[in-house]
Write a structure and sequence with these properties.
single chain; 248 residues; 5-stranded mixed sheet; 10 strands
Length: 248
Amino acid sequence: MPSADEPPSFTLGYVPGVTPAKWVRIWNERMPEVPLTLVQVSAADAAEAVRDRRVDAVLLRSFIDLSGLHAIPLYTETTVVVAPKDHLVAAADVISTEELADEIVLHPLDDTLDWEQQPGQPAIMRPATTAGAIELVAAGIGLLVVPQSLARLHHRKDLTYRPLTEAPESRVALSWLEDDTTDLIETFIGIVRGRTPNSTRGRTPASTSEKAKKPEANRKARTTTGKKRQPGSRPSHNNRRKKPRRRS
């Protein structure tokens, strides 16, 4: 994060599978004078990256501990089961967790789903990463349950995936420090929420705010102190001239 003497910049962290490209493009169009730097962080390290001020804000999966952080939910992902293309899973449109009861289901250490009870049969060892688990699935050693974005990220021609019902979902959120809601963060919040550049939401620079107050102050002053009648206005009752009476 920049010091007071450095030009403004914005650093955005994001976890694997999340694609911030659209929001970054809008930022570059609206804020060309403030460069945005993208930093990929692991799902487990995403919140700590904000607390350590390595990033100004982060796009993360919100089942982790968010103490000391704000979090705006953005969307919820579909949960899928990844399997070889010749597996029985590939023949179905949708799979339930009960149908995985006899299958080996890999549970990587960087799992991004908040399970109460993992489906299927556990493997002898837990893979260190989701990428490593994908390699094991391709080798025919078990299945893998992940958010759909991670299935797309690790796509292979010999694998496929199907929606999984009765499984926890992954919620993606924008998060930042509770005591550090800066103007740049407000700007990015407006972008992810779809606000237009002319939206009145968010913070208003002091100079703009002062300019907005002056016309209102001048209007009140003219209303309370001005005695000169404005063009087109009607004279008051006391100032009206009486019409002469006609003689009969």
